[in-house]
Amino acid sequence: MSLDLTGITNENEYYSHHYLSAIFEGDLKETFAQWQAMEDDYRESLKLNGEKGDTFSPKRAAWIRLRSLSQDFARLQNQLEKERDLSERLTLQNAFLAKLVNALGFDWQPTMKNVGDFGEIPVLSEVANGLNPALWAIGVLNGLEDKDDPLNLKLLKEQWLVDHEAAPALFELTCENLINKVIFGLDNPPRWVLLISDAQLLLIDRSKWHEKRLLRFDLTEIFGRREDSTFKAVSALLFKEHLTPKQGLCLMDSLDENAHKHAFSVSEDLKFALRESVELLGNEAMRYYREVRKEKLYTDFRAEELSRECLRYMYRILFLFYIEARPELEYVPIKSSTAYLKGYSLESLRDLEMVQLHTEEAQQGTYISESIQLLFDLINDGFSPDANLSPFSFGSSSAEVFSITPLKSHLFNPNSTPTLNRVRFSNLVMQRILQLMSLTRPMSGRFQRRGRISYAQLGINQLGAVYEALLSYKGFFAPLFDALLEE
Questions:
Q1: If residue 386 lies in a helix (H) or strand (E), which one and from where to where?
Q2: Would you say residue 115 has pLDDT above 80?
Q3: Do 372 and 350 meet the contact criterion of CB atoms below 8 Å apart?
Q4: Is residue 139 classed as helix, strand or coil in its secondary structure?
Q5: Nearest CA to 244 among 192, 187, 194?
Q6: 427-438 and 367-381 are packed helices; what angle lies between their axes, rounded to 10 degrees?
Q7: Omega of the bond leading into 391 within 30 degrees of 0 (cis)
Q8: Is 122 helix (H, G, I), strand (E, B) or coil?
Q9: Which residue in 57, 457, 10, 2 sits closest to 227, CA to CA?
Q10: Cα(230)–Cα(221) distance, rounded to whole angstroms?
């Protein structure tokens, strides 16, 4: 059974989307096996001793302890809806949070921690590494009406323990600023911060916080659905021993290392695919100029200019693969318009990836090239059904009418590819490029098949690494081709 990550938001790509979707579960197989063995031993012990089980026993797996809090969470929500007194609301919430942090392996130990010039702040649980803090769990309280982002909430004076006074300046800071300016500004700050409200839990890693990368857990969604695989994923990411082990590398760092390795692997594959595609475009452009246009190549035509145009052409395709795979960006109507999906999208051309081109006409035709160019123009110029005529509107159905805002970027500007604008690439070449950009590389083994690259799972960081790696790419004419240019 695959992990259900519903309720877990991978904000600003704490991990790459592809890692969480395709690799994450495999990296946790050993952990889940240990938990299952732990549960089996516990049940066997109860059976032998004739004892009744304790859901919150430390001998049970964290995800089982966490799942058992579902009714407590529902009860808390009902209580908070009725209770108006601020102190009572804090008491109710803390009673639940105590069970939550205990279920995740942490000790419930409300205390005050010194934060330098700002005095002290309330901390619900702390894990220390010697004299230095490794993790702080901090609670925040939502208002009476709305469930706000914990980062936008502020600490309340009612959270301070008896005989401790709060610095007034702290009450002006949102939790986001509190973490930025106060907690991570300490000489010895904790690496981890768990920011918890009655609706959400945020896992913040100081090493990733400068990019606002974090994991957000929607407690309402998680406890409401009660999906076992979700509780397993949540526990794996939040369990005390996985964040702050007594010795050795923490599981979260192992996962992060594997995520980086896989991101590098995917990025490398795309780099090679792009580089080969650029070479295919450049060679086909030269063939087209010589054999179709019958134009003699002028001596000041430089390979560097051609390679730059080919890179731009491929960046356009990479951009389209990405935005079509991310309908939530709402730029192209890939989900809402059948007309766009079937008639104009790059996705529709992917159906031609493995089609056999048997005839000379099929191989040397330019259908794929012309379709891609039409899509480039559509992105650059945009389209509005109120201002444009057919063929973009195929009927009165709302599913057949779409609009696109003109991008008007240097990337899609026709003036940025003057040489390639005069070329119609053959279906044979364009099909090969679609294969390179759409399919995984062939693997050894009789039954190994090529799979489709899911651009929806690729992260911005991976695509950015691919883009930056090819900025310095410069093509050149091979000696044999140089001789042909001089003829």
A1: none
A2: yes
A3: no
A4: strand
A5: 192
A6: 60
A7: yes
A8: strand
A9: 2
A10: 10
Q: Would you say the C-alpha torsion 434, 317, 439, 272 has a positive or negative sign?
A: positive
Alpha helices by DSSP H, listed for 167-302, are: 175-177, 219-225, 228-238, 240-243, 251-287
pTM for the full model? 0.66
- C-alpha–C-alpha distance, residues 338 and 387, integer Å: 20
Backbone angles phi, psi at 333, to 5 degrees: -85, 55
Q: Is 387 left (phi over 0), alpha (psi -120 to 50) or beta?
A: alpha
Answer whether residue 479 shows pLDDT above 80: no
Using alpha carbons only, give the angle 392, 395, 397 rounded to the nearest 5 degrees: 110
Q: Which amino acid is at 451?
A: G
Q: Which of 318, 304, 305, 306 is nearest to 274 (CA)?
A: 318
Place of tokens 């026709």: 414
Tokens (6 digits) for 376: 């480039």
- The string of pLDDT tens digits covering residues 13-35 is 888 776 777 778 888 999 999 99
Residue with tokens 């079509």: 324
CA distance 67 to 56: 10
**What is the distance, to the nearest Å, from the Cα of residue 118 to the centroid of all Cα atoms in its chain?**
35
Of the candidates 150, 141, 142, the residue with the CA atom closest to the CA atom of residue 179: 150
Which SS3 state, helix, strand or coil, does residue 301 take? coil
437 φ/ψ angles, rounded to the nearest 5 degrees: -85, -15
